[in-house]
Write a structure and sequence with these properties.
With 294 residues, the chain is α/β, with parallel strands linked by helices. Helix content is 34%, strand content 16%. It contains 11 helices and 8 strands. The chain has an 8-stranded parallel β-sheet with strand order 2-1-3-8-7-4-5-6, with helices on both faces. Strand 5, helix 7 and strand 6 form a beta-alpha-beta unit. Helix 8 crosses helix 9, helix 9 runs parallel beside helix 10 and helix 10 runs parallel beside helix 11. The protein is globular, with a radius of gyration of 17 Å.
Length: 294
């Protein structure tokens, strides 16, 4: 049985400020889940932390590209170095964010090793790019575009390895039914399933379909954004849009996707402990992760 390791990547470089002069609180995600004894409950080894650069968008203006571009590129390489070592050692990596930009470290690590796919569990398609928006900025909202090579080369083509993930090797699950980029994403050949699609098929069945395709590759990674959950049960995110899934549905997705020997790891992002005054949301989210990673 392979060993599970937990690596902290508490970066908030990919988000816009929640208020002027403030910083996104998702950098506290790892600590909040550790407080709920996540490591002991999934029998994981502590792999430490990759400390991110300072968050500051002072002086940035629309048209300047992605926030923290140079810092994000450097952090992605450092995170990829660490994740890659665990994957090469045959370990299952659980990477605790941070925001969704941490997945860049995972996909760069895997691209260095071969052809890997991604199961992208998110309430949003994250396909913003200069072709469909007036400008880019927050890379956490551009995740699927960036990892498939759509965006500025200093982020999308690190080590000359663009795209990190081929469009045919990406499965996006749990997007809100009214996401404005769904049709555009489908036209690219990316497999995208909305909440309605998941419920029509059944979360576990939809996950099995995605898994069957991803297992044909060298392996695959799971990206989990906490905003896939409905804000009734998970309001502590930066974009708590209605129409998400519930905890049991997320458990069903995770059990199938992470249960494959071809799945090499998962990153967890966007949960913001600053919006969870009594810790109850962290407790419920950790319960879901533990159940889903069994």
């Amino acid at each position: 049985m392979r060993r599970t390791v937990v690596l902290d990547a508490p970066s908030n470089l990919g988000l816009r400020p929640p208020a002027e002069g403030a910083v996104p609180g998702c950098y506290k995600l790892a600590g909040a889940l550790r407080d709920q004894r996540l490591l002991a409950r999934i029998d994981a080894i502590d792999a430490g932390v990759v400390t991110p650069p300072r968050y500051s968008i002072a002086g940035w203006k629309p048209g300047d590209g992605v926030f923290h571009g140079a810092a994000l590129a450097g952090y992605t390489r450092r995170l990829a170095d660490r994740i890659g070592k665990h994957v090469e050692a045959g370990e299952f990596a659980v990477v605790l964010g941070g925001d969704c930009s941490i997945q860049l470290g995972a996909v760069l690590a895997l691209r260095r090793l071969g052809r890997y796919g991604v199961a992208y569990l998110d309430g949003h398609s994250d396909y913003r790019h200069v072709g469909n928006a007036s400008h880019v900025g927050a890379s956490a909202g551009e995740g699927t575009a960036l990892i498939t090579g759509l965006g500025q080369p200093d982020i999308t083509d690190l080590d000359g390895l663009a795209p990190y993930v081929r469009r045919s090797d990406l499965a996006v699950l749990g997007v809100r039914d009214d996401d404005e980029a769904v049709d555009e994403v489908r036209e690219t050949g990316i497999d995208i399933r909305t909440v309605e699609d998941l419920r029509s098929t059944g979360p576990a069945a939809a996950a099995r379909q995605a898994r069957a395709r991803l297992e044909q590759l060298d392996g695959y990674w799971v990206h989990l954004d906490a905003d896939i959950l409905d804000p009734i049960v998970m309001p502590a995110v930066d974009s708590p849009d209605p129409g998400g899934i519930g905890h049991e549905e997320l458990v069903a997705l995770l059990r199938v996707l992470t249960g494959s020997p071809r799945c090499v790891g998962i990153d967890v992002a966007i949960f913001d402990p600053d919006l969870d005054a009594d810790g109850s949301l962290a407790a419920a989210f950790t319960d879901t992760l533990v159940a889903g990673l069994r």
